[in-house]
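#lab-general

N.A. 3:47 PM
ok so I finally got the sequence cleaned up, no stray characters, all 135 residues accounted for. can someone with queue access submit it? mine expired

B.Y. 3:52 PM
send it over

N.A. 3:53 PM
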Amino acid sequence: MTPQEAITAALRAALAGQASLAAQTNGVFDAPPVRELRPYLLIDDPVMTDWSTKDQDGREVRIAVLVRDTGQARQRARALAGAVEAAVAAMPAALGDGWRVVSRVLLRTRIVAEDAATLSAIVEFRVRMLRTPAA
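B.Y. 4:20 PM
back already:
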C-alpha cells in the first residue's frame, strides 16, 4: 500500500464513520461525483513530501477535505467543516501496511462562495506518518 493510498483510505473511513457527517451529507468521494447532490465531501489529492528517518520511511502530507454545499447560508457548511475536523482528530493512528500517524494538525478552514447558489468549505490538514519496518 502506498502512503497516498494509506492516508486517503483512512481519511475516507474516518469521514464515512462519523455519524453526523453520514447523516447530513450524500457521501465521501475522491473525485467530483457526476450525479451526486450537494452536500457531499470531496477528499483532495494529498501533497506529500519525504519525512523519513534513518530507519523508517516517512511522509509529511498536506491534504484537504472540501465540503460542497448549496445556498448562501454558511451555518451548515461551518457545522460540517467542524465535523470533518472532529473526524480527522479521532482517526486511528494505525493506517495499515505498517503506516501510522505520528501527528495531525489542522492548518486552516475557509468557506468560499463558488457562485450565487453554491459554496465550499475547505478544511486542510498536515499529517505526518511513519512506516514501521517489517520484522
